[in-house]
Structures are given as C-alpha cells and as structure tokens.
C-alpha cells in the first residue's frame, strides 16, 4: 500500500494534533500566529534527524518521532524554558507505506500529550534520500531569565543530572555491538530510544544555575561548550560522573575503567543537563532535582584558562574526540 498524499496526510493525521491552539488554523494556512504570555520571552530551537545518521533505518517510526521531539524539548529545558508548541518538517522516502506514516504520527501524539505542547505547522514532502525529520520547538521563559551557556565563573562547579553514557550503550546494543542481557539491556535501550528531557528541572535551573547545556553530543564535548562560551577551562573528573546501575554493570565487565568511563563521557544522546553553579548553590540545586525525581552529581570545576581536562582518579586522560559531530 502506498503512502498518503500530501494534503490527505496533513488533514487526516497532522491537523488533529494542532487542536488547542487557534493560531495554528488547523494547519490550513502557511504560517501560524504565536505570542508568549505577558512578562515572558520565546525560546526557539530546531534539530534535524536523518535516517542512517541519527537513527537506524529499521527503527520504529513512532520512536523516531518521540526522540526527535524530545531532543528539542531538551534544548528548551537547558535554557529553563517551558515547552508550548512545535513544528515538524518531514522528508519521506518515496513509496513509504501509509502505516509507517501513521505510526510516526502516533509517536508525535503520544509525546505532545505527555509534555503538554501542540503542533502548529511545518512541511512534508518526499524524495529519493533517507527519511529526515526536522522539528522546531517553541517555549517560554520569564523575561530575562533564560539560562545560556555563557555564564559560568571561575570556581563554579559542574553538576550533571541523571546518568551519562546509557544512550551510547543502548545504541551499541541496538546495533548488535554489545552483549548485555536482562533488565540492564532493557534499561539501556529505553534510554537510547526514549531519553527524558529534563523539563521538570527548568524552575530549579533558572533559580540556581549560571550556565547550562543539554548533553546531546557527549558530556566532554557539551560541558566543554559551556567552558568555551564562558571563556573558562573545565576540569572534569570521570570518577564523579554519574552512571546508572545498568551502565555500572557494563563498567564492571571492562578491563580498563578509565577508558570505559571516557567512552561513556564521549557518547551522545543522553539529553541530561550539565550546569555551572556557584559552590554555595550546589546542594540546593541537587536537592531541587531530587525533589523533582532526578538525581544530580557534582563532576567538575570551572577555572581560568581554556579547554577541558579529563581525569580519572588523579590521572589525566588523552581525549581524541569529545563527542559526536554531525559532519
């Protein structure tokens, strides 16, 4: 069975996702009308995912949709924003079956309901190339309160939420490159396919953090972006990097813990937050995270200079690459 026609796909599958925002005009116009609440500013982000580059061509389209949306929500969370709306532009491979298209929209519907946002527009087409998903997400933040990368000061602590490296291990499992069974394998695959954007931490981030970023490409690379944007150096201690029980099970099987932890710290798609906090703010922020159901841990310190120094139990480690790059 061939896929939906362009306008049938929009009218039957996408338009219902726009209910709740009058300015989306049921996706019948070429643009939408939006405005933040009084006293707030808009925060806008965009990400593109390409089959074979950012996800496997065999992946469930519903999971692809949810991950694409969550990647953008993670960017909003890192700036302390609350999600409101999103747009999605799709390039379907020619001949895509309508069941796969419907499955993709099921994923969008599930997560927009979970995270409380509405589809307001986008574009859809087909081509010879791989399946490509581009999402633009809109959020709001109290005026002047957006958290950026460029705010860390010498002596600030690097605090990381959740656990690092799970998604990279999950990808290796999905590719058949790692052997891990049972609950640990299931947990890692879950973290790879369905990362949790830390939207719930936005208020705590605005209150306590001087700078922040989401860990999408790898902790070393992304925390390094905060250091660079702030004009500082970062000393990252891998023994303090938070890891999950599932990743801990994998670590226990590795002959070189330092090298294994570096692998976790340079893999991507965790969508945790890496934050710069004044020393006196660390405990309050960690407590606020815990109250929201998320653990957080201090893993480094910012100082004068430039670059990222990565160490394990006092030994400096050579780093060939800090994380995933898109080119």
Automatic annotation (TrEMBL):
Keywords: ATP-binding, Kinase, Magnesium, Metal-binding, Nucleotide-binding, Thiamine biosynthesis, Transferase. One of its GO terms (molecular function) is thiamine-phosphate kinase activity. Residues 29-141 form the PurM-like N-terminal domain. Mg(2+) 1 binds at residues 47, 123. It is an enzyme of class 2 (transferase). Residues 153-310 form the PurM-like C-terminal domain. Mg(2+) 3 binds at residues 30, 75, 214. It comes from the Bacteria. Signal peptide: none annotated. PANTHER family: THIAMINE-MONOPHOSPHATE KINASE. NCBIfam families: thiL. Reaction mechanism of ThiL seems to utilize a direct, inline transfer of the gamma-phosphate of ATP to TMP rather than a phosphorylated enzyme intermediate. Belongs to the thiamine-monophosphate kinase family. This is Thiamine-monophosphate kinase.
């Amino acid at each position: 069975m061939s896929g939906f026609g362009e306008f049938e796909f929009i009218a039957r599958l996408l338009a219902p996702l726009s209910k709740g925002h009058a300015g989306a005009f049921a996706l019948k116009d070429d643009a939408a009308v939006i405005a933040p609440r009084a006293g707030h500013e808009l925060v806008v982000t965009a990400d593109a995912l390409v089959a074979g580059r950012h996800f496997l061509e065999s992946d469930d389209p519903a999971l692809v949709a949810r991950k694409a949306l969550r990647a953008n929500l993670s960017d909003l969370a890192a700036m302390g924003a609350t999600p409101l709306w999103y747009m999605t532009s799709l390039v379907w491979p020619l001949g895509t079956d309508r069941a796969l298209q419907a499955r993709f929209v099921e994923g969008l519907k599930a997560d927009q309901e979970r995270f409380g946002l509405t589809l307001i527009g986008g574009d859809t087409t087909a081509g010879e190339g791989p399946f490509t998903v581009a999402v633009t997400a809109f959020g709001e933040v109290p005026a002047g309160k957006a958290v950026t990368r460029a705010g860390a000061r010498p002596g600030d602590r690097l605090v990381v939420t959740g656990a690092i490296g799970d998604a990279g291990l999950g990808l290796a499992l999905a590719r058949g490159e790692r052997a891990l069974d049972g609950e640990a394998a299931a947990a890692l695959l879950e973290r790879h396919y369905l990362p949790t954007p830390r939207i719930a931490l936005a208020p705590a981030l605005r209150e306590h953090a001087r700078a922040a970023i989401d860990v999408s490409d790898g902790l070393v690379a992304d925390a390094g972006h905060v250091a660079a944007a702030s004009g500082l150096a970062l000393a990252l201690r891998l023994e303090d990097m938070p890891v999950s029980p599932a990743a801990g099970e994998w670590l226990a099987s590795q002959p070189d813990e330092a090298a294994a932890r570096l692998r976790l710290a340079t893999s991507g798609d965790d969508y945790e937050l890496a934050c710069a906090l004044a020393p006196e703010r660390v405990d309050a922020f960690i407590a606020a995270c815990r109250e929201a159901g998320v653990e957080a841990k201090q893993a480094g310190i910012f100082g004068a200079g430039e670059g990222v120094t990565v160490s394990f139990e006092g030994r400096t480690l050579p780093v060939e690459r800090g994380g995933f790059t898109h080119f």
